[in-house]
Design goal:
single chain; alpha+beta; T-fold
Length: 306
């Protein structure tokens, strides 16, 4: 499982930059660079869309960031075994998380975020003690919680972490808002490499999207030509541990509490929607050495790097 919601949700200024045939809007959120490529030369429209995008991302991050003490997720994680009232948006996210859990045979589990208390993937060689990992395992288990349209019940001590789906969800939400405000305008929503293209460009050109090389963020492993749809990448290029020559990925197996072994370093998936692509990319990594076979069985376009 991955985490995509940061502890820094202060809304900062965004920047608008004209390009040869489009505008680019940029801001920082969810511990990632956020970018909109807007197929227009109307600066006012580009500014409006970027402002709306930033406001929506800030809203989502404030609501679902596990670092805050004044939001709904904090109430859920500190419910002490008592029912917590939830809203429709949270209910829909929980339904999606439940689908992820079932499709993955329990490997995609939003309650496994509690393992962050043991693992800190900062590139060091500091591994947690087996005792610490073992003691956290009873606090993991999506099947232990129950929810309905307006209420969630979770055993005391357990926590949810929406980071594994948060960034892709934000991409899709922003793409929908852009499509509503500018129905026939092509917009690329790119949050840290998780991408949604609202519709094809007016002149029929493709957007050129690069897959980052494992050799460095300034290098491109593959240049894709995209007209519409979603794209998401999962991997351990930046978050890992290295001990005695062995690399430990930040993709954790909720059943063992330890990183999945023999998984690709990076998986990129193309799908209709970013959140769908993100799910498939993460599920592939959770398959370890069978990642490619899993993606082939899903009949999607993908790129794996080991």
């Amino acid at each position: 499982m991955e985490s995509g919601l940061s502890n820094n949700v202060k809304q900062t200024a965004f920047a608008i930059q004209p390009k040869s045939d489009h505008y680019c809007g940029r801001f920082q959120a969810m511990a990632s660079p956020c970018e909109l490529l807007i197929d227009t030369q109307d600066e006012q429209l580009a500014t409006q869309l970027t402002s709306v995008a930033q406001a929506e991302v800030t809203r989502i991050e404030k609501k679902f960031s596990r670092y805050r003490t004044d939001n709904l997720l904090h109430q859920i994680n500190h419910g002490h075994g008592q029912p917590v009232t939830i809203d429709d948006e949270t209910y829909r996210l929980l339904q999606f998380a439940n689908t992820c859990f079932e499709l993955s045979d329990g490997m995609f589990d939003l309650s496994s975020g509690v393992l962050r208390k043991a693992w800190n993937f900062n590139g060091s060689e500091q591994l947690p003690s087996p005792e610490l990992v073992h003691n956290l395992l009873p606090l993991i288990g999506w099947e232990k919680l129950s929810f309905k349209h307006n209420e969630l019940l979770m055993p005391a001590g357990m926590e949810l972490d929406f980071g594994g789906i948060g960034k892709e969800y934000a991409v899709d939400c922003v793409a929908k808002l852009c499509a509503q405000l500018a129905p026939n305008l092509s917009v690329v929503v790119n949050f840290g490499g998780d991408i949604q293209v609202t519709c094809p460009r007016k002149q029929g050109q493709s957007w050129h999207i690069g897959i980052e090389s494992l050799q460095g963020e300034d290098l491109t492993a593959q240049l894709l030509h995209i007209q519409a749809g979603g794209l998401a990448t999962s991997g351990d290029a930046r978050r890992f541990l290295l001990k005695d020559g062995k690399r430990y990925s930040h993709i954790l197996n909720p059943h063992t509490g330890y990183p999945v072994e023999d998984a690709p370093r990076s998986v990129t998936v193309a799908a209709s929607h970013c959140i769908q692509a993100g799910l498939l990319a993460t599920l592939a990594l959770l398959q370890g050495p069978e990642a490619e076979q899993f993606l082939q069985s899903q009949n999607v376009q993908f790129w794996c790097y080991r």
